Amino acid sequence: MNPKQRAAEAALDYLQDGMVVGLGTGSTAEYFHKALARALTDGRLRDIRGVPTSRPCERLARQLGIPLVRLADHRPDVTVDGADEVTPGLDLIKGLGGALLWEKIVAQNSARMIIIVDASKRVDRLGTRSPLPVEVVQYGHEVQVSFLRSLGAEPVLRRFEDRPFVTDEGNFIYDCRFNGIENPAALDAAIGLRAGVIDSGLFLGMAERALIGYDDRVETMSRRS
Amino acid sequence: MNPKQRAAEAALDYLQDGMVVGLGTGSTAEYFHKALARALTDGRLRDIRGVPTSRPCERLARQLGIPLVRLADHRPDVTVDGADEVTPGLDLIKGLGGALLWEKIVAQNSARMIIIVDASKRVDRLGTRSPLPVEVVQYGHEVQVSFLRSLGAEPVLRRFEDRPFVTDEGNFIYDCRFNGIENPAALDAAIGLRAGVIDSGLFLGMAERALIGYDDRVETMSRRS
Fold first, then answer.
1. Which of A44, B3, B11, B75 is 20 to 30 Å from A54 by CA-CA measure?
2. What is the distance between the alpha carbons of residues A200 and A132, in angstroms, rounded to a whole number?
3. Helix-then-strand count for chain B, H and E
4. pLDDT value at A225 more than 60
5. Which pLDDT value is given to residue A98?
6. Could you report the predicted ipTM of this complex, rounded to two decimals?
7. CB distance A196–B104 less than 8 Å?
């Protein structure tokens, strides 16, 4: 097993029969979906229902035979998702996969959030390794560039096959390079108050636990309180 | 002239030749568009270009012959828009017309914002007369009801012809009744940090001046500093 897969398998330990599980998006989350599908097939787990966080995730879950329910009807007992950066305090950057908004909606409505990553995602400070994805409405999106620069970012409009990438919600994404984010909470608040900037990949104070996969083991990090 | 029209006409005094003007949405703003079009026809103003804040506003401006430019290319020198509530400190509730997101993007990118209203829109405290429109993404929108209730609101999904009303950006709107909003800044911040809640009709600290139309006069309110 590779480190991502190892972390994904370990997350099964946090599931119980009958739970509603938020299903993350991205390569590590996909290992989890596959592990979950196997556990449902071989009877290790029963009566699990998933809440998808993106259309690709929804398609994969259907292929794997994981029963799905709507977030509106069932709040997840636990969400299992990957991350692009994890700090020792379990603050995260997510959304390089382009699904940050749905992922965040599901995470904010889950009783618990467990992060599965390989060890390369550990950082001491957010914004050192990964750009921060920021989702913006298409209308007037160009004016957000100077706003994002005023926050210390170097924003680049994400492209896909020579066109701007469009999210499930019809928005654009600016990938914002920081030279380390000094005050993530202040950045989160500034983004929140800006019209036309929908959300960012900052997930602060949401994850309860991170399972870090290595070649030979999984380490568990819990929130410092 | 009725009070709305009177306020709209008075806003022309704040325009100068060559300006880029943010064009608001709603019945009072439409009086302003018509007054502006007349001023351009009779030569009182020249070389004004407008930035529309909604598709209906864009259509009307084209019909009236007001030249339009894109926000991305031209930041407005001034935006003239209506409001549903105005406090003595010039904080606003807007967006009953359903265009709050574009209106707010344009307002945040304008050098000045001038509000035109009739006297019925004056309130001592926000959320006493008008519901607060809150724009939410369609995905999982039902879960935002309990969130909005936790903020003291009684939210009602806005409908249009027996279906949920859909904004220019493809979102839904919950009209939120408050029994007066105690702390608008705290409410604005809480909404900003919530994933899936795009924005609200709170416009705090943005308007510089309000022109209040009465049957026989226009009163001017400037921001208390």
1. A44
2. 7
3. 6, 15
4. no
5. 78
6. 0.91
7. yes
Chain B residues with CB under 8 Å of A184 CB are: none
Radius of gyration of chain A (CA): 17
Q: What is the mean pLDDT of chain A?
A: 96
User: Where do the H-state alpha helices sit in chain A?
Assistant: 3-11, 27-41, 55-64, 100-108, 144-150, 184-193
Reference A23, options A42, A5, A37, A38; nearest CA is A37
Reported as a pLDDT band with limits 50, 70 and 90, residue B177 is very high
CA A42 to chain B, closest CA, distance in angstroms equals: 32
Contact B156, B149 (CB under 8 A): no
Tell me how close the Cα of B69 comes to any Cα of chain A, in angstroms. 11
Looking only at the bridges linking them, the beta strands covering B112-118 and B209-213 are parallel
Of B99, B94, B107, which is closest to residue B60 (Cα–Cα)? B99
Does A108 contact B199 at a Cβ distance shorter than 8 Å? no
A90 pLDDT more than 80: yes
Q: Which residue has the tokens 């290992």?
A: A31
Q: Which tokens in the block code for residue B142? A: 């039902």
Catalytic residue among A9, A58, A103, A135: A103
- Is B81:B116 a contact under the CB 8 Å cutoff? yes
* Residue A140 reports pLDDT greater than 80: yes
Beta bridge partners, B23, equal B52, B80
**How far is the C-alpha of A221 from the C-alpha of B86, rounded, in Å?**
49
- Identify the CA nearest to A25 among candidates A134, A99, A117, A105: A99
Please state, in angstroms and rounded to a whole number, the distance separating the CA atoms of residues A1 and B194. 37
B98 confidence band (pLDDT: 50, 70, 90): confident
Q: Give the list of residues 6+ apart from residue A101 with CB closer than 8 angstroms, or none.
A: A135, A167, A168, A169, A171, A198, A199, B137, B139, B195, B196
C-alpha distances (whole Å) from A7 to each of A3, A208, A213, B112, B214 are 6, 15, 5, 53, 67
Which of A47, A50, A102, A111 is closest to A77 using CA atoms?
A111
Nearest to A151 by CA among A201, A96, A190, A193: A190
Q: Which residue has the tokens 């019925």?
A: B120
Return the closest-CA partner of residue A108 out of A14, A202, A222, A11: A202
